[in-house]
C-alpha cells in the first residue's frame, strides 16, 4: 500500500482510507500526561493516479520533496494533487492547472482545505495566462492527454522550471496517435521531450494499473 502523510488530519478527499499510526510518546507530552503522538496517513490509489501507479511500478525519483514548488498540469478534480500537496507539505506549493471548469470546481473545493494548493482554471497550452500566479518551480508533472503534450510541457518548462528541475510526464498512447503501437508512440514522444531540453531518466509503462500508458521522468537541462 502506498500512503502519504495527511496534511489535514481527520479529512479525506475522495473517500480514501485513512490510517492513524501511534508513535513513541514525546517526553514533554509524557510530563503533561498527554497520549502518544498520532500521525495520520492517506492511502494513495494507483488506479486513480498515474503518479501513484508510477511509484508502485518502480519509479524511484519523482523529484517531489517537502518544501518543493510543483507545477501540476492536468489537475482534474484534484485527487492526485491532494497527495502531491501532502508530499511537499506546508512549506511547499502546488500550482494546479486544470482547463475544465467542472473539474475545476472540485479542485477549488479541495484547495480550500489544503492551503498549499493554488488552483488555476486555465489552458496549459497558454502558460503566459497564469504568469502572475506561478513563480519558478522545482518540478513539473503533466497529465494533459493531448496530442501536443510534449510541446505543452516544453512551453511551461521554458517559462517556469528551474534548470536542473524535475519533469514527470504521463503519456497516454491513444491520445497521441490511436493508429500506432503504444511502444512506437512512447518512443516518438521521448524524442519530442528531448527536443524541449528535457533529458529523460526513466521510462515505465503503467500496467496493470493503466493500459497503453507510460510515465517518463527527466531533468530540464540548459540549452547548448
From TrEMBL:
Record keywords: Methyltransferase, Nucleus, Ribonucleoprotein, RNA-binding, rRNA processing, S-adenosyl-L-methionine, Transferase
GO molecular function, one term: RNA binding
Primary location class: nucleus
Pfam families: Fibrillarin
GO CC annotation, single: small-subunit processome
Transmembrane segments: none
UniProt keyword annotation of Ribosomal protein present: no
Subcellular location: Nucleus, Nucleolus
Family label: Belongs to the methyltransferase superfamily. Fibrillarin family.
NCBIfam families for this protein: PRK04266.1-2
Protein's name in the database: rRNA 2'-O-methyltransferase fibrillarin
Amino acid at each position: 500500500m502506498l500512503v502519504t502523510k495527511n496534511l489535514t488530519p481527520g479529512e479525506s478527499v475522495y473517500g480514501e482510507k485513512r490510517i492513524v499510526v501511534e508513535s513513541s510518546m514525546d517526553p514533554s507530552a509524557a510530563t503533561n500526561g498527554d497520549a502518544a503522538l498520532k500521525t495520520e496517513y492517506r492511502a494513495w490509489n494507483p488506479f486513480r493516479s498515474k503518479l501513484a501507479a508510477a511509484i508502485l511500478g518502480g519509479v524511484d525519483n519523482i523529484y517531489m520533496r517537502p518544501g518543493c514548488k510543483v507545477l501540476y498540469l492536468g489537475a482534474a478534480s484534484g485527487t492526485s494533487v491532494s497527495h502531491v500537496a501532502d508530499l511537499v507539505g506546508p512549506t511547499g506549493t502546488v500550482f494546479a492547472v486544470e482547463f475544465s471548469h467542472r473539474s475545476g470546481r472540485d479542485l477549488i473545493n479541495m484547495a480550500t482545505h489544503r492551503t498549499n494548493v493554488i488552483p488555476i482554471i486555465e489552458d496549459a497550452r497558454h502558460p503566459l495566462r497564469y504568469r502572475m500566479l506561478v513563480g519558478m518551480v522545482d518540478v513539473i508533472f503533466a497529465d494533459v492527454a493531448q496530442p501536443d503534450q510534449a510541446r505543452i510541457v516544453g512551453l511551461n518548462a521554458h517559462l517556469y522550471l528551474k534548470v536542473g528541475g524535475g519533469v514527470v510526464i504521463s503519456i497516454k498512447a491513444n491520445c497521441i496517435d490511436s493508429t500506432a503501437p503504444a511502444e512506437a508512440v512512447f518512443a516518438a514522444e521521448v524524442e519530442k521531450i528531448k527536443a524541449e531540453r528535457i533529458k529523460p531518466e526513466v521510462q515505465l509503462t503503467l500496467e496493470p494499473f493503466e493500459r497503453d500508458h507510460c510515465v517518463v521522468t527527466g531533468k530540464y537541462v540548459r540549452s547548448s
